[in-house]
Every structure is written in C-alpha cells, then in structure tokens.
Give the backbone structure.
Amino acid sequence: MSPSRFASGPVLALGLLLVLPSPEALVAQSVPVDQGTFRILSNGTDVGTEEFAIRRTGSGAALQVIATAEIQLRVPEGNTSMVPLLQTSGGDMAVSGYQLKVSGATQEEVTIELGPGRYLSRVRSERGEREREYRAASGTILLDPGVAHQYYFVAARLVNGEATIPVISPREGRQFELRVTTVSASTSVALVEGSTQGRHLRLEGDGRVRNLWVAPDGQVLRVEDPDRGFTAIRRRAP
C-alpha cells in the first residue's frame, strides 16, 4: 500500500477534533493536565521517545480530555513514527474517539468511533482493512501497545487504590477487563533524570501482568510490560 493513502498528521488530528466545539475553542478553553517525554526501551535497549500532552475542558458530565503524542522508534524494520490522538468524555473519562497514524517502516491507521451502545474500530494497513465492533461498557478506556501516556486514564479511575476497568486494545482486536491494585502507596521511582516518589500499581488482564508507577496526582512515571519487553521511563518528574 502506498504511504499516500494515509492521512497526514494535522489532517488526522483535525478529524477527531471536529467533534469538539472547534479547534480554536478547545485551545482557548483547555487546561493542561500533563505533558512530558518518555524514553522507550525494548527488552532493555533504548529504541526511542514518546512526547505527549494531555489537556481537558469542562468538568463533570461535560468533561472532555484530549491526549496526543508523537512517538519515534528505531525498530528492526526501520524508523517508525506513531501519532495517537485520544478523546474521552464525561467524569469517568470514557473513550469517545480515537485515531492513530503509524508511518515510516510500518504503515497503519486506526480509528475508533462511539455509536449507540458500541464502538466501531477500523484498522488499515499493508495487510488490508478490517472492522470490528466492541461493547461500549461504562467507563471504557483505551490502551494501545507501546503507548505510555494512555496509562494516565488507568490511574484516574482508582478508588481506594483499586479499580476494575473495561479496556479496548484496537490494534490487537481485543476487549478485556483490567484489574488494578496498589502494590505500594509510596515508593522511590527511578526516572531518566533522577527519581521521585510515586505509587506502584499492578495491572492484571488479558492474561498478562503490567506494572505502573504514577505520581501522587496521577501522572505516569514509568510503565513496564514484561510480556512485550516494553518499558517507558519518564525523563523527569512532573
């Protein structure tokens, strides 16, 4: 498939932002939630970076959160860029739309739209196009493999240090429940530059265990997914 069949980054972003009042209104009204950079490791080897920003508008039932990132990876197939754009709505920060553009050595495009009682996912790649529907369970979040900042929405759902969260992984074509428990309420977390105090969480679901460390206000500090050999380490404390 020719790369020209894929939308450019700005066009891709605009497609999702059109569901908001307007891009200009979003910038004017939005409040920064978190932003920063992760170092990405694959089986212990430094393979790239993830620069991200999370912003919100409104509150309560009118809350909208937009999470964006640019991920640059050096993989055996060649340099790869990933640009995810996630929108959530409501106080539970449930997914209301998602787009992902993968370019470089790999070409892939993912969209998720919320309909009545369901999510519709479309994935286009060199292998073709596939569609799938997922049940729109209350409070559904999205976790895309290799994307660290999206774990912010896991930490945001904790109640007394625990949560059970419906999750969609669109590129894998999976929907599952993620059980989150607290391993330690306060521990030292090593960052790329220095260290900071954070909460250590254990995530169990889809037959795998992941570890997540977050700051007291919920910002993601470190993610480890041993089954995939994936580690994301925040450059510095938020």
About this structure: The longest strand covers residues 174-190. The radius of gyration is 17 Å. The chain has a mean pLDDT of 89. The first helix runs from residue 9 to 17.
